[in-house]
Amino acid sequence: MYDVAERSGVSIATVSRVYRNPDSVRAATRERVLAAARELGYVPSGNARGLASRSTGVLGLCFPDYADPDTADIEDDDAAMLYSDQIIRGMERAARRHGYALLIAASLEGGPESLVAKVAGRVDGFAVLARTVPTEELEVISRRRPVVMLAGPRADPSLDHLDHVEVANEDGQYELTRHLLHNHGLRRLAYVGVDDTSPDVEARFRGFRRACAEAGVDIGTEPALRMPMMTQAEGARAADLLCDGGTDTGTGTDGERPEAFVFANDQMAVGALQALERRGVRVPDDVAVTGFDGIPLSRLVRPTLTTVRQPMVRLGEQAAELLIGRLRGQSGEEPVSLVLPVSVARRASCGCADTEPGTFGAL
Amino acid sequence: MYDVAERSGVSIATVSRVYRNPDSVRAATRERVLAAARELGYVPSGNARGLASRSTGVLGLCFPDYADPDTADIEDDDAAMLYSDQIIRGMERAARRHGYALLIAASLEGGPESLVAKVAGRVDGFAVLARTVPTEELEVISRRRPVVMLAGPRADPSLDHLDHVEVANEDGQYELTRHLLHNHGLRRLAYVGVDDTSPDVEARFRGFRRACAEAGVDIGTEPALRMPMMTQAEGARAADLLCDGGTDTGTGTDGERPEAFVFANDQMAVGALQALERRGVRVPDDVAVTGFDGIPLSRLVRPTLTTVRQPMVRLGEQAAELLIGRLRGQSGEEPVSLVLPVSVARRASCGCADTEPGTFGAL
DNA sequence: GTGAAAGCGCTAACAG
DNA sequence: CTGTTAGCGCTTTCAC
């Protein structure tokens, strides 16, 4: 910058002005500066800028490196769009609309200084996919810049002051379950959750229970099954267990095979479809299967999977909007908490005709 | 940082050491510092750090905001994974492996200071999707930091010094065309390109020509058709034109409908499938249709689309590796140029049985 | 092992 | 409209 100033015969202040506020500089001067900059190959230092102006014009996003090994190599992993990809997309778009760029990093452990801290130090504010970052670290960081939590509701009270966006897990599962109950007249439903108690999954289960309770179907207070992980492999295992009557908790089935397997996510449901096909159990004729999430894979499997679609792109957009609102000092003091609506995708695996666009109709 | 130093009774130099090189500080001191930092909610400033150490630990990526309006709202645009998404994924992963974060921004016009410049100023090096950034600007920036071009080959000689990675467009199209020629015995092939001459598309067409020439099929030196854009709508229009004998250039068909429509990308091919269905022309019985890219949609349409799959995730990974190599001062002076291999996906639209995993087999 | 001091490259008043 | 002058918060020799 000093060189540019010298070469164009002005002060560094003027060079600075040319970039930050072009109109405040006489056109001729401006051209001279720009020309010098071009000749010198001048690239303004974002760091120095940020330091001096205490703001970076960058938003951050931390997400888990969620690579389910089961799906990792489908199509060289080209086709399977993960949550994080969609959130990234939404957030980048919204950020860009407001002139921000997006810094992304999957969480990674580290010494006293994790990648999160590194990201945090380079952005004006950032979003975190729930449970990606140690609570304590988040707490510390959130004292200095706006942070919004994504998807997982405020698990920890020490994080209650954070803004937060999630999807309607409970309502979605409730609607789906009602569909099974009322439209398909099913009664013996088995819910498959996960050991590791996740707020999202618990909310979904609550929706399931509520629907069952309203229909007078007793399914107990616990999922029929809790698997250690929410992967395809575990989904397949769950299906096997359920078929073999390996459980009698909360299915209301007394060992009989349930009429519907209600999975806490699509991954497991897809694994189940696979296992059922292997065993020769027909879906949906012999048993209905449902998932949750609406991942692209859910439309690729046969039968197509009935599920609850989450608006992940919107999630990312909302995160950016919220952060930018905070940065502008709008959105008062109160922490904001948004719940994005979901929609039930009725497809073949519950016995519906798959009328959904997509196979070709969408084109 | 000064506060942390004071509170823990050390100098700022020591605080700095605790974060950058923990082992150079006595354990007791270190703990004291860390505790103070926690109490104060200290978040190291990435900017100040970068300024002082002249490096950011961040890689950048500029991509076009490629939102084909035709596909934009499929499934709330949740399902359609764009190129950029895959490249982002690959690049983030590779960057992370080496301790870098990734700063992303879709290109956007601006005053003297575009978003690109902003990104450039905040990263140690970055990748650019071809034709996303004005050549001149790139030239200037690349004098200061490593830049790698993605996908589009060195269009401009002033950019010849840049590293660059692309996919085997020509070979891919060549293989696909040979398949049509030899395995399906087709002769009257029509290639559909685009007006706006793109290096990728030209390379693909060269592959097409080469295969035709080798098989003794004359198709002239120009694509049968060049559409203004590579969208579904244009693909549909192209199919109509071809069916109506609206061209007699280079099809070798003299107005008769060609036996195969070879599209320069999947988008157009998908649009064509749609148009053909409308007209009652059966694919592949009446005419074969092929695309290029291997977008997820190509597996969702019926018939599934025969195409050439590009390894976009690898592209992103390579970009990151290349940059990091440069930053480490490895990879000598010479610009590196990589060509990633592609693979032909033989699916239903060319008359092959779609044996490809994915519908269920992949699970 | 720890402190002191000199910048890193830019922005933002404040004068002129 | 343009120049002067302080820092912004950290890293980094170089002493101690």
Instruction: Give the % helix of chain A.
Output: 40-55%
CATH superfamily of the largest domain in chain A: Response regulator
Which CATH C-level class of the largest domain in chain A is it? Alpha Beta
Largest sheet of chain A, if any? Answer: 6 strands, parallel
Care to count the β-strands of chain A?
A: 12
The total count of helices of chain A amounts to: 14
Overall shape of chain A: it is: elongated
Structure description:
Two copies of one chain form a homodimer. The radius of gyration of chain A is 26 Å and the shape is elongated. The first copy, chain A, has 363 residues and is an alpha/beta fold. In chain A, the strands form three sheets. The first copy, chain A, has a six-stranded parallel beta sheet with strand order 2-1-3-4-5-11, with helices on both faces. The longest helix of chain A is centred in the middle third of the chain and has 16 residues. Chain A folds into three domains: 43 residues, 434 Repressor (Amino-terminal Domain) (Orthogonal Bundle), CATH 1.10.260.40; 140 residues, Response regulator (Rossmann fold); 159 residues, Response regulator (Rossmann fold). The C terminus of chain A is likely disordered. The relative contact order of chain A is 0.12. The interface between A and B is large, with 85 and 84 residues. β2 of chain A pairs antiparallel with β2 of chain B, so a sheet runs across the interface. The first copy, chain A, binds a DNA duplex (16 and 16 nucleotides) through α2 and α4.
